[in-house]
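Sequence decides. Consider this:

===
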Amino acid sequence: MKKLLPADFNFVLKLLYALAFCLAALALNRQLAFYNDALLTLAQPLAPTDIKRVALTFDDGPHPVYTEPLLDGLKERGVKATFFVTGQNAAIHPDIIRRMHDEGHLIGNHTYTHIELTKSNRETFKQELVKTNNVIQEITGEEVLYVRPPYGAWDKKLETELNMFPILWSIDPLDWCTSNSSCIAQAVIKKVGENDIILMHDYYKTSVEAALMIVDELQKQGYEFVTVDKILFD
C-alpha cells in the first residue's frame, strides 16, 4: 500500500472541510427559507370582510296584530332585532314578549305608558321604568338593562340609579307619520351606514312592511342585523 504523504493529508482535510462547509450552508439556507415562509404567513393580512352591522329597533309594542307578522318575517330572514316595549302593552300581551325573548331578540324598556320625561315628572317617569322592568322580567326571567326614553328625553342620573343604559338612534324615517311603506324603506336605505341604529315602530302595518323591505335590501348589500348591545359593546 502506498504511504500517504503529509500533502495528501492536507488535501483530505481540505476536502472534508469543504464538504462540511457546504452541508452547513445548505442547512442554514433551508432554515432561512423556513423562517421566511413563516414570516410571510404572519404578514399576510386577514381576509377583508364585507359584512357590515346595523341594528333594527322597534318602539311602542307589542301590537296585538302587527308585531307577530314582523316576528315571522324576521325569523324567516334570520334577523335579530331590539324591541323597546311599553309596560302596559307587555302586560296585556305576555305571549308576544315571551316569543321575542325565545327567538333571540333583545327586549328593552319604553316606560309603562309612553310618558315623556320633563322637569316636573321625574319621579313618575322613574316609577314607570321600574314598573315596566318588573313586567318584562316576570315574563322573560331576565333583567332589563336598556331603555329607549320616549322622544329621547333622558336624565343621566337615572343610569346609575336604575343601572340602565339609554339607547337612542341614528336613523329615524318617521315611519309613524306616513302610510307609504316604500317611502319609509327608502328613507332608511338611502342613509344607512355601518353600526347605524334604526328607529321604527311595530305599531303600524306599513312600518312592519317597510322593515322587511329594509332587511331584504340591506342583506343584499352585505349587512348583518344585530341587537343594539352588539353595536354598542362588541
About this structure: Residues 52-233 form a domain with the TIM Barrel fold (CATH 3.20.20.370).
